[in-house]
Every structure is written in structure tokens, then in C-alpha cells.
Design goal:
heterodimer; A: mainly alpha; 1 helix; about 40% helix; rod-shaped; disordered N terminus; B: mainly alpha; Cytochrome C Oxidase, Chain A; 17 helices; binds protoporphyrin IX containing FE; binds copper (II) ion
Chain lengths: ~60, ~600
């Protein structure tokens, strides 16, 4: 087999001063939006019903006596 | 950053060290194989899809799964990759290879001892068991061989750290004015954290659990040993993660075709972990009675601070990948993602691991909140969370890193890159299913650590989907993960049997956009950071520990040991039965007399 790691073919050299990580910023903002959404979702899932934490039904059987 | 000047592979430059690193990695993969096997067994068992063990053996299986994966697999990988990182970045071999073999040997002996105690639980012919799960909470009691094995293993890791410090000191004599190379800096700060953290289990085992299992003392204070466990138990999660972080910082940028965005920021991150990893352990004990709410609140606050270094890591690592993508011609706000080398298994594995870690970040924030924690505590949600963190962020990064390391360590090309790519993608898919179903099952209150999570007269009710669907997803995910492990191992074995190759890339780290010369000298002052870390630990732990001892006594309120075996279980059931029958009889009489009293 050939090389274990492909040598990335570099198209251009970008130095420290000309590099602005805007894509990173975009991704991080997206992540924060997602977090906020999930947080709200959690509120609806867990608190609004005010139900007990264990969700289910007691199946009455053999309790009558 | 210092780099291996010679430009060859690792095995060319450090043949003797390569052997130790290889041995550590193979030990790690053996544990992964065993752990994975137990993982699929317990998945099929608890979903009731295929049960071929008795349910009373479930804890033996689960203990083996937990210990082999989060102690053996992760830590053997860590010592291997750290040895590689130190020797490469200082560009010098270890000071004395016999010492290196010594700590590797101790770790191996310790593992064999603990593993023997755990696996003996499968047979009745040996009177030994350690069905205590990886948390070994008292009153669950293991055979002394288990505790002693852990001690020997941890001493091995201490000596490993000493080995790396020794290399650094020797290097410093010859290079007094140079900054500590970043990979070595990461190794040293991680080990300082580890030295502080292991005080917790060292005390817990040597002073309490080991003498207790030997019958030297009769009783322990379970709250105390639990608290000491979590003193170590939270920092250990960073012991699993930091080697992965190290690879994200020093390899991933290069593989993406770019440079590390900032060396100073990376140093700050590792210092923050050294400072904040330990004084948070009580966040695992939000539901423990006997610890005041105030202490729990302090632990929660510290935990929220601990989010900072992980968010900094997300930023730095993604920015470095973006740098690579843009150099490769990527454009736009999101378009650059397409320019990344997704077909390279090393890249794909690490990037997917990072993505899953971001998801784990959310469930981690839920766990960390004191009140929301009550909703998910001890449910399947929790394994759902940590299969994303240690089970993917660490494990998948380690596997992906192996595809880079193994050729360096053997001088042989990777057996099959396509299989490697399929392997990392399968892991991602499998974990998506398994972890999704675990999180959702946890929200319904389905418990973790349970062989048969089904109850007479009670049915869990899913808001979306059904419990059967959740079980199916869990099993499907588990099966994909098991296949992924098999493919990984096949690649490791295939590579080991490959012929030597001479067109392997040189053993090099990523270069940096902003190097160590941009960072203040004080970042390298390890004594200062260690001192602050110790003070923070004392502040966070002295009062809780004092109050626990004050309440329950140093050696506890006389509890009985509980080695989980069928005899004790049936004895317990028998006693319980006696009590309940007696209780029912008295209540019956009581009801009868009052009723007759009322009716009259
Ligand atoms: C084939 C892959 C895997 C499968 C099918 C699997 C499956 C499972 C399941 C179903 C549980 C929950 C059992 C219960 O609470 O009743 C569990 C627990 C656990 N898993 Fe995994 N897992 C896998 C891989 C991993 C990996 C790679 C790690 C870590 C590196 C890991 C670490 C753990 C730990 C620490 C526990 C908790 C043990 C305890 O509660 O004491 N697993 N696993
Ligand atoms: Cu924790």
C-alpha cells in the first residue's frame, strides 16, 4: 500500500495576520443556538408537565385482594 | 516547536522506545477487544434480545466492561502516546529504557491481578470475585487482589510520569533558555493533575478498602470512600480526554493541511485543567445524602468554570482545521468544511470524535446542573453521556490516532485505509443510535446498571416512539460498535504482519500560526500552577471531608461487606422475606384491631 498519510496538497499559504477564522465563529454560533434550543426543549420535556421523573403507568394486576 | 530534525519515522529515530510504546498500545487494544465483547453481551442482555448469561452475572460483565475500557484501554493508550509525544518533541530518547520497561511491567502486572479478580467472578470454582463495578463503592466488596492490582497499576503510572519528568529535566539542562515544547508541556501538566487526583484513590484503597477486604478493619464509612473515589473520579475523565485533546492540537491541524492556531491558548487550556479538574468531584454526588447542599453548590460552580477550557479547545481546534481548509482552497462560512480531507481516516475519525464530543457537552451541562441532575441521576442517560465523551471523544480519537501512530511505531504501512475509514464512520453511526436511545431512555427514568430493566406491574411509557424501539436502537448501535471494534483490530493485526515500508511520512507535529514566543513565560512555571491547584483542592475538599468524617466516623457506622454473590443475595432475600412476612403479619393484626375498633 502507498503512504499511510496523504500529503495534503497545499494550494496557498495563509499567514497569521491574513487569517480570520470566520467559519469557526459561524460554527460556534450555530452550536450555541443549538444549545439554547435544546435547553428550552429540556424545559418542556421535563418541567412543564410536572410529572414524576419516571414516566410510565402502573399496570394494576394482582394488587386487588 | 522543536521537531525531530532527522525527518525519519519514529521507529528509525527511537527503535527501543518504539517497542515500549507499541507494547503499551497492544495492551490497550487487548483491553478494548475484551471490553467491547462484554459491551455487546450486556447490551443484548438488558434489551432482552439475547440472554445467554444468568442475570446474576450481569455485574461481573459490567465490571469487566467498565474497568477494561475506562482504566485499561484508555490509560495504556495514554502512557504509549505520551511516551511518543515526549520523546518526539524533546527529540531525545528516554533516560533509561529499563526504567521505562519497569513501569510498563508494573502496569501490566497490576492489570492482570485486577482482571483475574474480576474474571474469577464468572466461575464458582474459585472463591474470588470483584463484582463492584468500576466505581467500587462500599459496601460492595471485592477480593483484595482487585484493590492490590489497582494499586500496582497506579504506581506504574506514577513512575511513567517520573520518567517523562526526568526526560524534561535532562533536556532542560541542555536547553536552559528554551520554552517547553508544547506536547511535552501537555504531558507534564496532565501528569501533575494525575498526581494530585490519585491521592484520592490511594487513600481510599490503602487506608480503607484494602485493609477492609483483608479483614484488618471491620467497617468503612461508605460516604467517605465514595467521596475519595470522586476526588479521583472526575479528574480521571480528563486523564482520558487530554491525550485526545493533545492529538487534536498537535496532529489534527497538520492533517487538515494547516497550522495550530495558537500555542499560547493551548497552554492556557492545559493549565486550566490542572487547576480545575479536581475541586469538582462532588458533582457526581448531588444525590448523596450526608453531604451538605452548600458543598454541592460549590462543586457545581467550579464545574461551570471547567466548561471554559473545553470551549477554548473547540475554538482553537476548529480554527486550526479551518486554517487547513482555507489553505486547501476552501471558502465561505460553511463551504470550507468540504475542503477538509474527509477520506483520510485519521482526520475523519478525530473530527467525528470532536463532533460527538460537542453533543456530549450538552448532556454534560444537564448532568452538571444540581436540580436537573436529579432527573437523570442513575438512569441510562448517564451512560448515554459518557459513551459520547470517553466512549467516543477519547476512544475514537485514539483509534484514529492509531492509524497515524502504528506505521510510525512499526515502520509498516497501514494495512487498509478504506477499512479504517469505514471503521471510524461505523463508530460514529453506531454511537449515534446507542447514545440517542440511552439518553431518551434515561429521560423516561429507565435505570442504568440493571440486568432486567422491566418491572412487574409497571410499564415505562415513551413520549415519542416506544420502549421496544429504544431497545432496538440500543442493540443496533451496540452491534455496529462491536463490528467497528473488530475492523479496528483487524487493521492493527494486518499492519503488524505487513512488510516494512520505506515511503512513510516523517514523524512530525503540526506547526503553529502563533508560537510559544507569543506566550508569557509564566505559563511554563509548573511549580506555580501546581501550588495553586493544591490550594484549590484543599479549599474545595477539606470542609466536606471533615464533615463526612464527623458525621459517619472515619471507619463508618459499622456496615457489613457485600460481595455480590448468589449466596449473599439469597441470604439477603431470605432475611428480607422474614422481615416482610413479620411486618405484614403485624400490620394485618393492627389493621384488624383498629378496623374492629372503628366498626364497633
Ligand atoms: C462495543 C461497544 C460498546 C457497547 C456495545 C457498550 C454498551 C454499554 C451499555 C449498554 C452500558 C450500560 C449498561 C448498564 O448500565 O446496565 C455500558 C456501560 C458502560 N460503558 Fe460501554 N459500550 C461500548 C463501548 C464502550 C467504550 C469504548 C467505553 C469507554 C472507553 C465504555 C465505557 C462504559 C462504562 C464506563 C460503562 C458504565 C459501567 C458501570 O455502570 O459501571 N463503553 N456500555
Ligand atoms: Cu465529573
Amino acid at each position: 500500500m502507498g503512504q499511510a498519510i496523504e500529503k495534503p496538497e497545499e494550494k496557498r499559504e495563509i499567514g497569521h495576520d491574513e487569517y480570520n477564522p470566520v467559519g469557526t465563529l459561524a460554527l460556534i454560533l450555530l452550536y450555541f443556538v443549538l444549545l439554547v434550543f435544546l435547553w428550552f426543549f429540556m424545559y418542556f420535556v421535563e418541567f412543564l408537565g410536572n410529572d414524576p421523573t419516571v414516566v410510565g403507568t402502573v399496570v394494576a394486576s394482582g394488587v386487588v385482594g | 516547536m522543536t521537531m525531530s530534525e532527522s525527518g525519519g519515522t519514529y521507529i528509525d529515530n527511537f527503535p527501543a522506545e518504539a517497542r515500549v510504546v507499541r507494547s503499551a498500545l497492544y495492551s490497550s487494544f487487548l483491553a478494548l477487544a475484551l471490553g467491547g465483547l462484554f459491551g455487546i453481551i450486556q447490551t443484548l442482555h438488558r434489551t432482552d434480545i439475547y440472554r445467554f448469561i444468568e442475570s446474576d452475572m450481569y455485574y461481573t460483565v459490567l465490571t469487566a466492561h467498565g474497568v477494561f475500557l475506562v482504566v485499561t484501554f484508555t490509560i495504556f493508550f495514554l502512557v504509549g502516546v505520551f511516551t511518543w509525544a515526549v520523546t518526539t518533541s524533546l527529540d531525545r530518547g528516554v533516560e533509561d529504557i529499563r526504567f521505562t520497561w519497569l513501569w510498563y511491567g508494573l502496569m501490566t502486572i497490576g492489570t492482570v491481578m485486577a482482571a483475574a479478580a474480576i474474571l474469577a467472578g464468572f466461575t464458582d470454582s474459585i472463591d474470588m470475585s470483584a463484582d463492584v463495578l468500576f466505581t467500587f463503592y462500599a459496601p460492595l466488596q471485592a477480593h483484595w487482589l482487585f484493590y492490590l492490582g489497582l494499586v500496582v497499576f497506579v504506581v506504574g503510572t506514577w513512575l511513567a510520569g517520573a520518567d517523562w519528568f526526568r526526560s524534561w529535566w535532562a533536556w532542560k539542562q541542555e536547553n536552559p533558555d528554551e520554552r517547553i515544547p508544547l506536547p511535552t508541556f501537555m504531558v507534564l501538566t496532565t501528569m501533575l493533575m494525575w498526581y494530585i487526583a490519585t491521592i484520592g484513590i490511594a487513600v481510599s484503597i490503602l487506608v480503607f478498602l484494602l485493609p477492609w477486604s483483608l479483614g484488618i478493619i471491620d467497617s468503612v464509612n461508605p460516604t467517605l470512600t465514595r467521596t475519595l473515589f470522586w476526588f479521583w473520579g472526575h479528574p480521571v475523565v480528563y486523564f482520558w480526554l487530554l491525550p485526545a485533546y493533545m492529538m487534536w492540537y498537535v496532529m489534527l491541524p497538520k492533517i487538515s493541511g494547516g497550522k495550530l492556531f495558537s500555542d499560547p491558548l493551548a497552554r492556557v487550556v492545559f493549565i486550566l485543567f490542572l487547576l480545575l479538574s479536581t475541586p469538582v468531584g462532588i458533582h457526581h454526588q448531588y444525590l448523596d445524602p450526608g453531604i451538605a447542599e452548600g458543598f454541592k453548590f460549590i462543586a457545581m460552580t467550579n464545574t461551570m468554570f471547567l466548561l471554559l477550557p473545553s470551549l477554548l479547545t473547540a475554538f482553537t481546534v476548529v480554527a486550526s482545521m479551518e486554517h487547513g481548509a482555507r489553505q486547501r482552497g476552501g471558502t465561505g462560512y460553511f463551504g470550507w468544511l468540504k475542503a477538509l480531507p474527509w477520506r483520510d481516516p485519521v482526520f475523519a475519525g478525530m473530527a467525528l470524535a470532536g463532533l460527538m464530543f460537542a453533543a456530549g457537552g450538552f448532556s454534560g451541562m444537564i448532568n452538571a446542573g444540581m436540580n436537573i441532575n436529579y432527573l437523570v441521576h442513575n438512569t441510562l442517560w448517564v451512560p448515554g453521556h459518557f459513551h459520547l465523551t470517553v466512549g467516543t471523544a477519547s476512544a475514537l480519537t485514539f483509534m484514529a490516532a492509531t492509524y497515524w501512530l502504528l506505521p510510525q511505531l512499526t515502520g509498516k504501512a497501514l494495512w487498509n485505509r478504506s477499512v479504517a475509514l469505514v471503521q471510524v464512520v461505523l463508530w460514529f453511526l453506531g454511537m449515534t443510535f446507542m447514545s440517542n436511545s440511552m439518553h431518551r431512555a434515561g429521560l423516561l427514568g429507565i435505570p442504568r446498571r440493571t440486568a432486567e430493566p422491566q418491572y412487574q406491574g409497571f410499564e415505562f411509557e415513551a413520549g415519542v416512539g416506544s420502549v421496544a424501539e429504544l431497545d432496538f436502537q440500543l442493540a443496533l448501535g451496540g452491534a455496529l460498535l462491536a463490528i467497528s471494534i473488530v475492523l479496528f483490530l483487524a487493521n492493527v493485526v494486518g499492519t503488524a504482519f505487513n512488510g516494512r515500508s520505506d515511503d512513510l511520512p516523517a514523524n512530525e507535529f503540526a506547526e503553529t500560526l502563533s508560537g510559544p514566543e507569543d506566550s508569557p513565560q509564566v505559563l511554563d512555571n509548573l511549580k506555580l500552577w501546581t501550588a495553586i491547584a493544591v490550594v484549590l483542592v484543599i479549599l474545595a475538599y477539606s470542609f466536606p471531608l471533615m464533615s463526612i468524617v464527623d458525621r459517619g466516623g472515619l471507619y463508618g457506622p459499622d456496615i457489613s461487606p457485600f460481595p455480590v454473590s448468589i449466596e449473599t443475595l439469597s441470604l439477603l432475600a431470605f432475611t428480607l422475606e422474614q422481615y416482610t412476612t413479620a411486618a405484614i403479619a403485624t400490620t394485618g393484626e393492627f389493621v384488624q384491631t383498629t378496623l374492629t375498633g372503628v366498626i364497633r
